[in-house]
Design goal:
Helices cover about 20% and strands about 50% of the residues. It has a five-stranded antiparallel β-sheet with strand order 1-3-8-5-6. The protein has a three-stranded antiparallel β-sheet with strand order 7-4-10, with no helix packed on it. Strands 2-9 form a two-stranded antiparallel ribbon.
Length: about 150
């Protein structure tokens, strides 16, 4: 943004200088569009998901603060967090961020997150995995990947 302002000021100074030297007037129109960006840094992510016999009997397993991310965006429309899951043992996933719960399918989905200012924002995400009838106790690779998109 500073570079754009520097360019605009330089153009105006050059135009103004030549306008006074030649005693003529000139009109310069300048516009700039700042494209929305969104940056995601994963600060922590669980590596494994452990399913116990009790979890399977309950039909779900909760993992608190499974993923901690830092997000930065300039989009006042917020951003999308897209989740991708690969596990035949999951029927549905709930993503928990603060006091908000977002329900997505067992294969993933998108969650619109609101704009919270231009600085880095730390998000601590928990997950509830609703388990399929085919679930088997054991330790599995973490089933969820995610991506960010600006709006």
């Amino acid at each position: 943004m500073k570079n754009i302002l520097y360019i605009i000021v330089s153009i105006l100074m050059i135009t103004a200088g030549s306008a006074f030297a030649e005693s003529s007037t000139a009109v310069v129109s300048v516009s700039a569009t700042v494209l929305p960006i969104a940056e995601l840094t994963v600060l922590h992510q669980e590596t494994w998901l452990t399913l116990t016999t009790e979890d399977i009997q309950n039909g779900f397993v909760d993992v608190r603060q499974a993923v901690i991310i830092s997000v930065k965006t300039n989009s006042e429309n917020g951003y999308l967090l897209s989740f991708y899951a690969e596990s035949s043992q999951l029927n549905a996933i709930s993503v928990i961020s603060g006091s908000n719960t977002y329900n997505i399918s067992g294969t993933g989905g998108e969650v619109h997150m609101p704009y919270e200012g231009p600085d880095h924002v730390i998000k601590r995400l928990g997950f509830r995995f609703d388990l399929s009838e085919d679930s088997v106790p054991g330790t599995y690779q973490w089933p969820v990947d995610m991506m960010i998109s600006s709006m």
